[in-house]
């Protein structure tokens, strides 16, 4: 028994390039794909590692990437950690000040920047304290980068030979670092070891998650700067599945063209991407027949969205859950054995947040920290631990987030005796009305089930009588059946029978769009700020309009909930 075999990203690279060297990374270029074998990706990773070594990068140094999902980014995914340095994927959608804060905190020495993104990166460059050089990938005007040393990716690789001698690495050494989205306070760094990355990638290929094989072609909508593209680039080298990279072509039209041309079999995306495809497909004929499964994460996928893809395209989308702190995948909502596919019962299971995957432990606790039962009824904060769950933030121990070896997720929910968990809200988003909780997530998912609603975000606002009440912020379709002035009553009536009367919003705002974070989640802190500033044009339903919108307490002690 070789107990000392190191579980490293180098082992992933060697397996994928030797066993699945003919599998491909396909980068979409607008009218076709650029095909590169895994064997070639590995050789280029060796060249890049040699070039970075020549530039003075040593073990433990941080190397940033400011790139789209493409072949060159994949090469950096392997070159940097396999040489012993730490890959830091930078969110290309961050404002310059926040980007600078993250780069300075991580102390990145070199950053690889896609040529088309040079102007965005240049805006942050004056505030960067540790960056010594920028490597530009592809075409792009470099003058915007000023006096910093600028190198060209293709030139660097051309000057090197494959055959870089990968060093022996401690599997527990740092390999990658990602920063949280920073919805509250400054973003925090999460460091992943070689071991945690290997185990997470291995888990992702299991049948209880994606079941990927070398017959698959995985379209990675999810950005490579978003928790390492959910681990897909590493898992694909273990399973042999080819990678389909959309580059900058993230609009629904090009995405659908990519799927049709390259016959993708799996696709991973956040719900806003899936909703965009659905909206596009309502007016254009699209072919999704090659997809055997889609996965969705980052936010709760509405039941109406899952049902629409099933009904229109025969595509099953399986919801998953995780966080930057969990690498990210901790569970996926595949229905249990015996459930007939395509039925309402099937949807009942697929709208759950997930089923706990092997290797991850979960518990729910009340406000006093007491562990609650796995009965599908008790509601508490979800806590997790496992071999790919972080135990602290980079240079920030944050003891309020970690205790007794458990990560406090900040998610509120239930878990049943089969390991299915349902997140009902974030702790900071749950609405406490009349002493009871109202799930903003449940209201949002129900509202987008109305045919006239494109997006819906619900926040809590102060109320003299009930402490807090829900405010529904809704985006309507351009061809909505009634005017916004009448839609509040229509939607309140639509919720009638789906939620208790006291849970239905009486406060409504109709927007042109819901603000989103850089990873596509509803940015409720912006909505709250707009409310406080009086910038939201609100409608309030009077009692007895639209099914008695005024919340009523239960006969004895107030609203009833699962708490």
Would you kindly provide a brief summary of this structure?
By secondary structure, the chain is an alpha/beta fold.
Commentary on this structure:
Helix 1 packs across helix 8, helix 7 crosses helix 8 and helix 9 packs across helix 10. The longest helix has 17 residues. Strand 14 and strand 15 form a beta hairpin. The strands form four sheets. Strands 1, 2, 10, 11, 12, 13, 14, 15, 16, 17, 18, 19, 20 and 21 form a 14-stranded mixed β-sheet that branches. The protein is of the alpha/beta class and 563 residues long. Among the domains are: 173 residues, ANL, N-terminal domain (Rossmann fold), CATH 3.40.50; 73 residues, Luciferase, domain 3, CATH 2.30.38; 110 residues, GMP Synthetase, Chain A, domain 3 (2-Layer Sandwich), CATH 3.30.300.30. The protein is built from 15 helices and 27 strands. The chain is 27% helix and 25% strand.
Core attributes:
globular; Rossmann fold; 563 residues; Luciferase, domain 3; 25% strand; alpha/beta; 14-stranded mixed β-sheet; GMP Synthetase, Chain A, domain 3
Beta content: 15-25%
Give the total of beta strands.
27
For this structure, the CATH topology of the domain at 11-19 and 41-204 is Rossmann fold
Query: Roughly what percent helix?
Result: 25-40%
Specify the CATH homologous superfamily of the domain at 11-19 and 41-204.
Answer: ANL, N-terminal domain
Structural class: alpha/beta
The level 1 CATH classification of the domain at 11-19 and 41-204 is Alpha Beta
Mean pLDDT: 92
Shape: globular
Distance between the termini: 49 Å
Q: Label the CATH architecture of the domain at 11-19 and 41-204.
A: 3-Layer(aba) Sandwich
Total helical segments: 15
- Supply Rg: 24 Å
Biggest sheet statistics: 14 strands, mixed
Low-confidence stretches: 544-550, 552-563
């Amino acid at each position: 028994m070789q107990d000392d075999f190191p579980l490293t990203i180098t082992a992933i690279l060697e397996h994928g390039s030797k066993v699945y060297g003919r599998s491909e990374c396909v980068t979409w270029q607008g009218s076709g794909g650029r095909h590169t074998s895994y064997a070639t990706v590995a050789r280029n990773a060796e060249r890049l590692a040699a070039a970075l070594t020549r530039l003075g990068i040593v073990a433990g140094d941080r190397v940033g990437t400011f790139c789209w999902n493409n072949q060159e980014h994949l090469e950096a995914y392997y070159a940097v950690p396999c040489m012993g340095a730490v890959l830091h994927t930078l969110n290309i959608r961050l404002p310059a000040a926040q980007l600078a804060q993250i780069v300075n905190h991580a102390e990145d020495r070199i950053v690889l920047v896609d040529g088309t993104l040079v102007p965005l990166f240049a805006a942050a460059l004056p505030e960067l304290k540790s960056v010594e050089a920028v490597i530009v990938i592809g075409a792009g005007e470099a003058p915007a980068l000023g006096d910093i040393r600028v190198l060209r990716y293709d030139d660097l690789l051309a000057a090197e030979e494959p055959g870089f001698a990968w060093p022996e690495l401690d599997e527990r050494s740092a390999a990658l670092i990602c920063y949280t989205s920073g919805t509250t306070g400054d973003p925090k760094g999460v460091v992943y070891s070689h071991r945690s990355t290997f185990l997470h990638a291995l888990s992702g290929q299991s049948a209880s998650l994606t079941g990927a094989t070398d017959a698959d072609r995985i379209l990675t909508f999810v950005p490579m700067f978003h928790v390492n593209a959910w681990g897909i680039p590493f898992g694909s080298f273990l399973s042999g599945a080819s990678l389909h990279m959309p580059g900058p072509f993230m609009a629904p039209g090009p995405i659908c063209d990519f799927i049709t041309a390259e016959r993708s079999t799996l696709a991973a995306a956040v719900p806003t991407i899936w909703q965009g495809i659905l909206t596009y497909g309502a007016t254009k004929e699209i072919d999704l027949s090659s997809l055997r499964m889609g996965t969705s994460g980052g936010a709760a996928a509405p039941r109406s969205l899952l049902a629409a893809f099933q009904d229109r395209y025969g595509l099953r989308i399986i919801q998953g859950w995780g966080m930057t702190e969990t690498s990210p995948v901790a569970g996926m909502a595949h229905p249990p054995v015996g459930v007939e596919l395509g039925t309402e019962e099937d949807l009942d299971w697929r709208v759950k947040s997930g089923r706990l995957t092997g290797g991850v432990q979960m518990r729910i606790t009340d406000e006093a920290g007491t562990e609650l039962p796995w009965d599908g009824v008790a509601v508490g904060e979800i806590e997790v631990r496992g071999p790919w769950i972080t135990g602290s933030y980079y240079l920030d121990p944050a003891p309020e987030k970690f205790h007794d070896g458990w990560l406090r997720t900040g998610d509120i929910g239930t878990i049943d005796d089969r390991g299915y968990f349902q997140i009902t809200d974030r702790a900071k988003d749950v609405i406490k009305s009349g002493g009871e909780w109202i799930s903003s997530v449940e209201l949002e998912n129900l509202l987008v089930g109305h045919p006239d609603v494109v997006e819906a975000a619900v926040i809590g606002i102060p109320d003299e009588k009930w402490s807090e009440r829900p405010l529904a912020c809704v985006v309507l379709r351009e061809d909505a059946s009634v005017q916004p002035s009448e839609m509040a009553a229509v939607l309140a009536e639509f919720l009638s029978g789906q939620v208790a009367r006291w849970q239905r919003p009486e406060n409504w705002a109709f927007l042109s769009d819901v603000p989103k974070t850089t990873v596509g989640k509803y940015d409720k802190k912006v909505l709250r700020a707009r409310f406080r500033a009086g910038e939201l044009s609100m409608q309030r339903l009077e009692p007895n309009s639209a099914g008695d919108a005024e919340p009523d307490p239960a006969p004895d002690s107030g609203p009833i909930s699962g708490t």
